[in-house]
């Protein structure tokens, strides 16, 4: 079984994407034998009102029975936009979403913003995950209208410390993973799950050894990235690096436990 914890529908204004709908993603999932995918609507990164993107995603997932069985939608919440608490309640209580995603660098607020901390506490109390994305696209190929700075893993750790009993997903580790001993301890001790899509996960076995087998799960960052790289990092592990039981953790068991499926 395979569960992808990092996939999208929707558009990116500075790059043409392919397969960026539930239909297109499901086709790619069938090709590679993926059973379920956590999905988010990319449009919400750029909509002023992120809830419009969440409504779009929910409507698309509900449009076909096949989508209901295969997709786990996460809503994007902007905690400095008016009505964000209503957006959270709609996503979690009405739509039954198992997680939310936040993009502080795109929505222009700091990691210690009181509204963000309150949002994460609400997610904790509602027993849903909070997904943090290290990078959406590589800034070296960015449009002049896109972000000129990127956040690294160390920039998100203060939020983990602020709400240590929340569940965090750290996705697309494509920025340097050089962090202090204290930051590393925070990640190890927290309820944290990282995906395999990021560029800095090239030497995957080293990061498994560094953070632990229960901290990683298959993720693609599709359709921004190609679909197969995140899976290849699991399947290419040598026998001395991981046995079949370990691979099953990465393929689906860690995701199942973390998402309480």
Strand content: 5-15%
**Main sheet overview:** 6 strands, parallel
Order of helices and strands: EHEHHHEEHEHHEHEHEHEHH
Topology-level CATH name: TIM Barrel
Q: Given the helix and strand composition, which structural class is it?
A: alpha/beta
- CATH class annotation: Alpha Beta
Radius of gyration: 17 Å
Relevant CATH superfamily: Metal-dependent hydrolases
Low-confidence stretches: none
Helix content range of the residues, please? Answer: 40-55%
Through-space gap between termini? 13 Å
Beta strand count: 9
Keywords: Hydrolase
Protein name: Amidohydrolase
Pfam families: Amidohydro_2
Domain Amidohydrolase-related: 35-261
Q: Descriptors for this entry?
A:
261 residues; alpha/beta; TIM Barrel; 3-stranded parallel β-sheet; 12 helices; Metal_Hydrolase; Amidohydrolase; Amidohydro-rel; hydrolase activity; hydrolase
Question: Could you give a quick summary of the protein structure above?
Answer:
43% of the residues lie in helices and 15% in strands. By secondary structure, it is α/β, with parallel strands linked by helices. It holds the Pfam family Amidohydro_2.
Describe the model.
Helices cover 43% and strands 15% of the residues. It is α/β, with parallel strands linked by helices and 261 residues long. The chain has a single domain (3-259), classed as TIM Barrel. It has a six-stranded parallel beta sheet with strand order 4-5-6-7-8-9, with helices on both faces. Strands 1-2-3 form a three-stranded parallel beta sheet. α1 (22-32) links the parallel β1 and β2 (36-41). The radius of gyration is 17 Å and the shape is globular. The relative contact order is 0.14.
């Amino acid at each position: 079984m395979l569960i992808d914890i990092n996939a999208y529908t929707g558009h990116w204004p500075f790059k043409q994407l392919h397969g960026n709908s539930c239909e297109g993603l499901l086709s790619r999932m069938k090709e590679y034998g993926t059973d379920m995918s956590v999905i988010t609507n990319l449009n919400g990164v750029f909509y002023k009102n992120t809830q419009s993107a969440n409504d779009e995603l929910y409507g698309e997932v509900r449009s076909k029975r096949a989508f209901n069985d295969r997709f786990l939608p996460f809503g994007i919440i902007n905690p400095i936009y008016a009505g964000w608490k209503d957006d959270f309640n709609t996503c979690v209580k009405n739509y039954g979403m198992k997680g939310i995603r936040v993009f502080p660098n795109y929505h222009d607020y700091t990691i210690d913003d009181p509204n963000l901390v309150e949002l994460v506490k609400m997610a904790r109390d509602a027993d849903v995950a909070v997904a943090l994305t290290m990078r959406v696209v590589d800034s070296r190929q960015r449009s002049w209208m896109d972000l000129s700075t990127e956040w690294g893993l160390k920039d998100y750790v203060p939020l983990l410390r602020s709400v240590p009993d929340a569940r965090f997903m750290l996705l697309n580790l494509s920025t340097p993973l050089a962090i202090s001993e204290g930051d590393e301890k925070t990640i190890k001790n927290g309820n944290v799950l990282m995906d395999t899509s990021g560029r800095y996960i090239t030497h995957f076995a080293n990061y498994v050894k560094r953070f632990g087998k229960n901290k990683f799960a298959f993720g693609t960052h599709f359709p921004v990235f190609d679909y197969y790289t995140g899976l290849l990092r699991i399947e290419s592990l040598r026998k001395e690096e991981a046995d079949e039981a370990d691979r099953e953790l990465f393929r689906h068991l860690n995701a199942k436990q973390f998402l309480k499926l």
